[in-house]
């Protein structure tokens, strides 16, 4: 088994907490963040449930101490908060002292602002400043600015696997010696654009999402941001850093089946998991907990379940659960918050419950873990699959 | 019913952007999905919106669409029976 | 460590850059603030069943990638990596307008699905049935260079032998009107645009798709080798020269080894000074090239630049239309490309024969 890349810091803001600590407490106390939507007015308010961060934009502006003429989108604000937490947690005081990068992820970008003011720009000159915060890259640029980071900054946008891909690229940049440390993760705020987009695909549930349940009706959208700091072993030794866990395996593959649906046999998922095992040198049986993508759509859970059975090929599938009943599906940030949860699982030796599960799926014999379980956790596998057949798997290991 | 069928053929061609297909090319009983016209699951969602917007029929479960959208014939029959617009 | 070779290129742009030898049909349009693509015959490359859902960016991406693969004589690749600054603007505009105009009712999924940034990469994977690594980068004007950097790492790390890399951006009417409002695009009375002698802010906007097949072996079709790619988010104007010198030194090269430098001059007087300083000082004796007067400015215009630089190394000739100065060299074997927009997202790309 390879050593893996060191994780030295984490930061997170989601519907179940505004810090790593708060998120963990919610996970072990079954405190979900799903509710009726508050911050966005939409005609669908009564037929959807969402995982909303419990802060308004005004509160975020105040917390970040942004000037009055700022042009931050909500995505950029929650991203900045989480990234700052991670940098502080990693004990970084002089961010450009060595080759440091930021690999971010987003699918919404500044759309949360754009959709508010789309027709209003021409009559309201004071809104024109928001035009440039629309694109995906602006979020990373703003975070880098707030951190004072000058080096390599880029953003990945591959729908729901985005943040996994950021973490993957970050690990590869450290392993290849191109960077000494890198901040990796993603951010997505809720927006009417995505709410309506998913509604047209008819994969939103009007109830609490129930992953891997035979009666599942679809997903609940969520918003969140999370970042981790990865550092080379040289940096860890030099600064005597505490290693929280390691990124030991990763893999990305394409389903090449359909723009939004996953193939029946989960080809892309299977290939991604296989690659992650190859990179880590681990055997599937060595995984203690799988944090599944588990969005609770009819399609994903079936496809992912089949892929898991293929990987385990007759062997028992380890304890697994989806944490999306807690947070909702946070799109480009999903893999990042689930990376934080994976590290916490390793640090605290727990398997989180897959809430809302009642009826096993009829297609196979796979049942998630339904209650909090304490056991030694050496290795965690985390899946994230996005539109465009983009499938990514990460493996985290105890240091 | 004939007028409705022609109307449906027209809507399908325009909404789904089937540039190289004419109304005469779609037979009433031709399968719309799979073989035949070759529409897919995304097209099915588009047709569900047409049912709602133009005929006032709300489908809650996309799977219902499978039998309704088999052909122009089945679509026309369903719409005639259930339209509120 | 394996090397990275550009073995096939494909370019769809606001100039005729397909079915040509090079830029012999290029024409400077200095009068329009937004340039439009010169379209290929899409039907020759994309079936009607597939094309019916695609906005122009996706179609251009598919054609450019097909051209690059044909050029490289490959039928499949191990990985597909793309970069785009604004993503699929047309479909985003369409879906958002529908939401706002119809108060969230009667919306259809196609434009939402097609608006996700990784649509081009996904569609190419679908048509090639390529199940390999597939990433899309979206970070302003380093989107394409991020894809290049990733591809090079894949080849060096033995993770892939052949990779399709591309940069795609499209214009959308409403988005362009917003950019005009925000001052990003040249005002009517600042036209015609004269990029090298600009006295106004704003740029002439463009769109395009530039694709490359990168492989770890030299072939008959090889254009150039990619020696190095670097991305830096923030550099002060007075730090750029030393950054370039350090970049070249890391590759055992000096300024005098550079046979041509490609600058991203875009006619915005505030930030073109970044290039002007270099042009008048450290690169005064180097053949200097520019291209955005042909391609227009957009986040992945640097893919057009890479296409241009690749062709120059292969043909050993620099078209007059892209020359900034009259300096010549006996051979054009090592080319440096430098770009930034609004003083941010700097990229340096080094090519050699």
UniProtKB/TrEMBL annotation, chain B:
Gene3D superfamilies: ACP-like. InterPro entries: ACP-like_sf, PP-bd_ACP. It comes from the Bacteria. It holds the Pfam family PP-binding. SUPFAM superfamilies: ACP-like. Transmembrane segments: none annotated. PROSITE patterns: CARRIER. Residues 1-83 form the Carrier domain. NCBIfam families: PRK09184.1. This is Acyl carrier protein.
């Amino acid at each position: 088994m390879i050593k893996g890349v060191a994780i030295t810091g984490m930061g997170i803001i989601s519907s179940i907490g505004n810090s790593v600590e708060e998120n963990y407490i919610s996970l072990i106390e079954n405190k979900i963040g799903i509710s009726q939507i508050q911050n966005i007015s939409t005609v669908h308010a009564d037929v959807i449930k969402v995982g909303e961060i419990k802060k308004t934009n005004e509160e975020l502006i105040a917390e970040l101490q942004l000037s009055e003429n700022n042009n931050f989108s909500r995505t950029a604000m929650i991203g900045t908060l989480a990234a700052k937490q991670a940098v502080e947690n990693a004990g970084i005081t002089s961010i450009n002292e060595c080759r440091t990068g930021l690999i971010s992820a987003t699918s919404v970008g500044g759309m949360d602002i754009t959709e508010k003011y789309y027709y209003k720009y021409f009559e309201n000159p004071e809104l024109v400043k928001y035009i440039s915060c629309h694109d995906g890259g602006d979020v990373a640029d703003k975070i880098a600015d707030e951190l004072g980071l000058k080096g390599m900054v880029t953003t990945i946008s591959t729908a729901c696997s985005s943040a996994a891909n950021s973490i993957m690229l970050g690990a590869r940049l450290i392993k290849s010696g191109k960077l000494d440390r890198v901040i990796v993760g993603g951010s997505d705020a809720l927006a009417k654009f995505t709410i309506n987009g998913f509604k047209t695909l008819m994969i939103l549930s009007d109830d609490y999402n129930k992953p891997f349940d035979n009666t599942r009706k679809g997903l609940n959208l969520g918003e969140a941001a999370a970042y981790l700091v990865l550092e080379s072993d040289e940096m860890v030794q030099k600064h005597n850093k505490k290693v929280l866990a390691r990124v030991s395996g990763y893999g990305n593959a394409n389903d090449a089946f359909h723009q939004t649906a996953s193939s029946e046999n989960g080809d892309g998922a299977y290939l991604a998991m296989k690659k992650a095992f190859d990179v880590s040198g681990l055997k599937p049986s060595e995984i203690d907990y799988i944090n599944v993508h588990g969005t609770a759509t009819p399609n994903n859970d079936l496809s992912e379940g089949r892929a898991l059975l293929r990987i385990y090929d007759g062997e028992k599938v380890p304890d697994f659960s989806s944490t999306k009943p807690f947070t909702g599906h946070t799109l480009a940030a999903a893999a990042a918050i689930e990376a934080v949860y994976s590290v916490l699982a390793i640090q605290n030796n727990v398997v989180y419950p897959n809430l809302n599960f009642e009826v096993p799926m009829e297609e196979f014999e796979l049942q998630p873990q339904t209650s909090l379980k304490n056991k030694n956790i050496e290795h965690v596998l985390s899946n994230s699959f996005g539109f465009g057949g983009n499938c990514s798997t990460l493996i985290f290991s105890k240091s | 019913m004939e007028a409705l069928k022609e109307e449906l053929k027209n809507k399908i061609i325009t909404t789904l952007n089937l540039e190289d297909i004419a109304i005469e090319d779609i037979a009433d009983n031709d399968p719309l999905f799979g073989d035949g016209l070759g529409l897919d699951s995304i097209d099915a969602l588009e047709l569900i919106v047409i049912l709602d917007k133009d005929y006032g029929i709300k489908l809650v479960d996309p799977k219902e669409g499978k039998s309704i959208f088999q052909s122009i014939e089945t679509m026309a029959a369903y719409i005639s029976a259930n339209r509120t617009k | 460590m394996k090397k990275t070779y550009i073995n096939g290129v494909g370019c769809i742009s606001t100039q005729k850059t397909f079915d040509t030898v090079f830029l012999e049909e290029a024409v400077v349009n200095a009068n329009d603030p937004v340039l439009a693509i010169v379209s290929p015959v899409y039907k020759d490359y994309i079936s009607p069943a597939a094309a019916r859902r695609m906005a122009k960016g996706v179609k251009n991406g598919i054609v450019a990638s097909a051209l690059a693969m044909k050029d490289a004589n490959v039928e499949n690749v191990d990985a597909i990596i793309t970069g785009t600054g604004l993503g699929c603007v047309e479909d985003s505009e369409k879906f958002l307008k529908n939401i706002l105009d119809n108060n969230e009712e009667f919306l259809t999924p196609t434009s939402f699905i097609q608006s996700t940034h990784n649509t081009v990469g996904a569609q190419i994977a679908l048509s090639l049935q390529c199940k390999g690594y597939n990433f899309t980068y979206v970070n302003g004007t380093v989107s394409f260079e991020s894809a290049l950097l990733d591809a090079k790492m894949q080849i060096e790390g033995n993770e892939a032998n052949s990779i399709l890399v591309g940069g795609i951006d499209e214009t959308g009417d409403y988005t362009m009107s917003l950019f005009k409002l925000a001052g990003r695009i040249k005002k009517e009375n600042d036209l015609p645009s004269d990029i090298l002698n600009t006295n106004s802010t704003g740029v002439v906007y463009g769109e395009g798709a530039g694709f490359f097949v990168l492989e770890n072996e030299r072939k008959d079709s090889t254009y150039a080798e990619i020696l190095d790619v670097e991305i830096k988010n923030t550099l002060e104007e007075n730090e750029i020269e030393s950054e370039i010198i350090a970049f070249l030194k890391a590759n055992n090269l000096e300024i005098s080894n550079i046979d041509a430098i490609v600058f991203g001059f875009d006619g915005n007087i505030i930030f073109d000074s970044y290039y002007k300083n270099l042009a008048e000082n450290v690169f005064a004796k180097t053949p200097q090239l520019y291209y955005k007067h042909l391609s227009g400015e957009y986040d992945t215009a640097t893919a057009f630049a890479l296409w241009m630089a690749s062709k120059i190394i292969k043909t050993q000739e620099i078209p007059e239309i892209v020359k900034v100065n009259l300096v010549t060299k006996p051979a054009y074997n090592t080319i440096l490309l430098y770009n930034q927009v609004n003083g941010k997202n700097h990229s340096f790309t080094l090519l050699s024969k």
